[in-house]
Amino acid sequence: MHMQMAALTMQLFPFVPKLRPQGQSHYLNFHNKTSATCCLGNSSESEVLLSQFNPKIPIEEAVTPPTSWYTHPSFFQLELHRIFYRGWQVVGSTEQIKDPNSFFTGRLGDVEFVVCRDESGKLQAFHNVCRHHASLLASGSGHKSCFVCPYHGWTYGLNGALLKATRISGMRNFDVKDFGLVPIQVSTWGPFVLLNLEKESLPLREIGTTHVSEEWLGSCSEILSTNGIDSSLSYVCRREYTIECNWKVFCDNYLDGGYHVPYAHKSLASGLKFDSYSTTIFEKVSIQSCEGSSGESKDNYDRLGRKAIYAFIYPNFMINRYGPWMDTNLVLPLGPNKCQVVFDYYLEHSLKHDTDFIELSLQDSEKVQIEDIVLCEGVQKGLRSPAYRVGRYAPKVEQAMHHFHCLLYENLKRINSMTRHVYEFEFDACQ
Ligand code: FES
Ligand SMILES: [Fe+2]
User: Which of 226, 198, 180 lies closest to 20, judged by CA?
Assistant: First the structure.
């Protein structure tokens, strides 16, 4: 009962009225707030849905998670709270915050954020919410010397400090120092910008890249680095796709070990040697690789090169390295039946002015994406059909997908850090 009251209090009054020093995010204990919302919602319903997948069953006998995991609003909420609001999450590219005073905004679940580089060049991230009446503050991306709220003009520096609160004469017990933007932990790895919403209640400190790579990539960080993934490639462009499917449908499609490629991407399949396809599983990363049929093309155009590497970083980030290219796919959950996939393209320096090659490569890539979108949207419709509830895995090719589902289970099942070791043990048993 006491816990329920505490939870309700946190939901109704997430801002602690007692004022505290600026630079610490005591005002919004986001983690508690979301836990509270979760407790007051349909958590027991979600637990039932969760229990419908058993990660202990070996892949040869296992059934896939049920359709409810891909369609149910309560399950979607559970995912936001237990997956996306915890741990390091990729939100963008360092290209977007190259210079002092550059910024970009985004949304992860219900969290509106702004990432910026302040005047001194320091990387910063904040909840993109005005402390006056909750208006969204910044929009889009670009350069700014300060953020002016479009509603009543409160103005914040790129270090989060409230520089000007308009028309507040007569207001008592108010100190601008206490109403800075609520900070979020931010870091980078290679060309990627990452946020960690879970750690925002800790005092802000510089987060080292090593620390992030350990937490985010585990033992895989070196492998990814040595395969050219964090090298300094030139940023080319971004493409965004809104897809009418659950975010996991897109991930599943990526993680089927090339199973669908000969059927759904015939032109891509002709550039790959399928007998060389392999999948390696790490803690939170899986890497699929395949040799390209390099040298067999009649002209000089060789987008795929000799080897393609497809790295999936749990929960929703893919890094594809092939030939002179790297592209990344960030799968953002927008709702139970909708996601957005953000593609960023990077290219070796020597080719960055070869506009014909770039154009042709992007066209080919786009063709594959459109083919995948059709597949994913078809699957989402099928998942809502009464004729289907669970499916099966092809054990020799869909190991990475099974690994993804086991990780989801482990992550979603984890109620708090006190029970963490129990679920890690359970998860180990399913490997
Ligand atoms: S909501 Fe931002 S100034 Fe009023
Ligand atoms: Fe595909």
Answer: 180
Distance 265 CA to ligand 2 centre (A): 7
Q: Are strands 155-157 and 162-164 parallel, antiparallel or unpaired?
A: antiparallel
The domain of 176 spans: 89-224
Query: How many domains is the chain partitioned into structurally?
Result: 2
For residue 155 and ligand 1, the question of a CB distance below 6 A is answered with no
- The string of pLDDT tens digits covering residues 1-22 is 343 433 333 333 333 223 333 3
> Residues 264, 270, 271, 274: what is their CA dihedral angle, to the nearest 10 degrees?
80
Q: Residues 104-135: pLDDT tens digits?
A: 999 999 999 999 999 999 999 999 999 999 99
3-state secondary structure 70-84: HHCHHHHHHHHHHHH
Any idea what DSSP says for residue 140?
S
Query: Which residue matches tokens 């409230």?
Result: 162
Distance CA 80, CA 327 (A): 25
Q: Which ligand is nearest to the CA of 181?
A: 1
231: domain CATH number is: 3.90.380.10
Residue 340 CB contacts under 8 Å (≥ 6 apart), including other chains: 240, 241, 242, 243, 331, 332, 334
Beta bridge partners of 322: 308, 325
Structure tokens at 408: 């989801």
Distance between Cα 372 and ligand 2 center (Å): 5
Which three-class secondary structure state does DSSP give residue 55? coil
Domain boundary among 224, 243, 262: 224
Give me the residues paired with residue 111 across strands.
108
Q: What is the CATH number of the domain that holds 177?
A: 2.102.10.10
C-beta 164 within 6 A of ligand 1? no
Q: Can you list the positions of beta strands (E) in 282-422?
A: 285-292, 307-313, 317-322, 325-335, 338-347
Q: Is residue 397 part of a domain?
A: no
Q: What pLDDT digit, counting tens, does each position of 139-180 carry?
A: 999 999 999 999 999 999 999 999 999 999 999 999 999 999
Is 138 close to ligand 1, i.e. is its CB under 6 Å away? no
Cβ atoms 164, 178 nearer than 8 A: no
